């Protein structure tokens, strides 16, 4: 994908924030001459209110402002999960202003006064190119997942109809081939669904519905649903609930997604023995553990299995999205997901749910 041309970056909306009117007018003149649309704010709270009204393509912030500094405004923008990514350029007249502090707060670039026209316009173009590139990537992922799901679902339904004999009797060899097609199609569809969910979480576009959920009943429901997979491998799948705590406020479908992923993974990576789901609690935390007697996970892999697209070296590893998505769900619920494991001795995944949230 070629980089955006300067012409394609014109007419972008830039918010400039400075407590000195003369500085604001200078920035306005410098950037409007390059074709940008400018809005001005003379303090941090006014800038944040303006961003909520109309999200700019770039924010230029003076560092030293009374009441709320540019560092503080930057942090508030970055900590707002409802805002998309907005590039931030910090600007200061003081040599002692900390570049490190600004970048750690979430700024993307730093420029000092007196500002040279060419340098300012070059930095603005650079940040707007970054914004446009990220926006294009997000749109590409969203379109890719949605547009691919439609034909996959249609294909899956057609294969199912053929398998049912709707279009006539089919020989055993064709049935076997169709089963393979159906399985591959389901795997691809699951991967796309996971990719779309991860995208929604990471872009802050996931909407959760928090209600009081009977967690023990939910765990039992998932265990019952997955028990046929365990029986097929002659594994013992059990649920051992040892706490009186049952209800917890959460998004039921998302918590169910986590239980399903972790328990099905435990079955997948266990050839002999058992998978046990247990529930315990202390005054502050509800703990749910999924323990298996499977192949285990090497210590080097444990540090990265919750990262997206990170896979272990085991030949049954998936696409590296499932555990990352589980971690995203837990973080959205202020919970934690961790693992203890030794190769050849099984794994234990622990879900920690804060009871203060119930």
Give structural notes.
It contains 11 helices and 12 strands. The chain has a 5-stranded parallel β-sheet with strand order 2-1-3-4-5, with helices on both faces. A 5-stranded mixed β-sheet has the order 7-9-10-12-11. The chain has 358 residues and is an alpha/beta fold. The longest helix is centred in the middle third of the chain and has 47 residues, at 117-163. β9 (274-281) and β10 (285-292) form a beta hairpin.
Keyword list:
358 residues, Rossmann fold, Heat Shock Protein 90, 3 domains, 11 helices, elongated, disordered N terminus
Counting DSSP H or I runs of 4 or more residues, the number of helices is 11
CATH class of the largest domain: Alpha Beta
* Lateral arrangement of strands in the main beta sheet: 2-1-3-4-5
> Any idea what the CATH superfamily of the largest domain is called?
Histidine kinase-like ATPase, C-terminal domain
Helix content: 40-55%
Total beta strands: 12
**What class, by secondary structure content?**
alpha/beta
Please report the distance between the alpha carbons of the first and last residues.
47 Å
Shape: elongated
**What's the SSE pattern?**
HEHEHEHEHEHHEHEEHEEHHEE
Return the domain count: 3
In terms of quaternary structure, the protein is: single chain
What portion of the residues fall into strands of 2 or more residues? 15-25%
């Amino acid at each position: 994908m070629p980089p955006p041309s300067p012409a394609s970056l014109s007419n972008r909306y830039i918010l400039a924030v400075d407590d000195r009117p003369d500085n604001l007018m200078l920035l306005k003149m410098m950037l409007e001459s390059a074709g940008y649309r400018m809005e001005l704010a003379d303090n941090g709270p006014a800038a944040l209110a303006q961003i909520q009204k109309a999200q700019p393509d770039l924010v230029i912030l003076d560092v030293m402002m009374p009441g709320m500094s540019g560092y503080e405004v930057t942090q508030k923008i970055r900590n707002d999960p409802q805002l998309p990514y907005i590039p931030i350029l910090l600007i200061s007249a003081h040599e002692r202003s900390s570049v490190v502090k600004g970048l750690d707060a979430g700024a993307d670039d730093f420029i000092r006064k007196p500002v040279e026209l060419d340098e300012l316009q070059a930095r603005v173009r650079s940040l707007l190119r970054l914004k446009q590139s990220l926006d294009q990537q997000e749109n590409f992922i969203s379109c890719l997942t949605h547009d691919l799901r439609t034909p996959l679902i249609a294909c899956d339904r057609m294969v199912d109809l053929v398998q049912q004999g709707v279009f006539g009797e089919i020989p055993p060899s064709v049935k076997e081939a169709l089963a393979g097609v159906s399985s591959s199609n389901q795997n691809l569809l699951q991967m796309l669904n996971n990719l779309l969910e991860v995208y929604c979480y990471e872009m802050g576009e996931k909407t959760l519905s928090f209600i009081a959920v009977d967690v023990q009943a939910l765990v039992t429901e998932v265990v019952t649903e997955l028990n046929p997979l365990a029986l097929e491998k002659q594994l013992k799948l059990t649920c051992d609930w040892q706490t009186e705590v049952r209800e917890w406020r959460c998004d039921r479908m998302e918590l169910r997604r986590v239980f399903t992923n972790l328990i099905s993974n435990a079955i997948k990576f266990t050839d002999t023995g058992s998978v046990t789901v247990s529930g315990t609690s202390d005054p502050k935390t509800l703990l749910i553990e999924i323990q298996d007697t499977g192949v285990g996970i090497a210590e080097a892999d444990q540090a990265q299995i919750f990262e997206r697209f990170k896979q272990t070296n085991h030949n049954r590893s998936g696409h590296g999205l499932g555990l990352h998505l589980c971690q995203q769900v837990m973080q959205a619920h202020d919970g934690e997901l961790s693992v203890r494991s030794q190769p050849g001795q099984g794994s234990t995944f622990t879900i920690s749910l804060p009871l203060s949230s119930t």
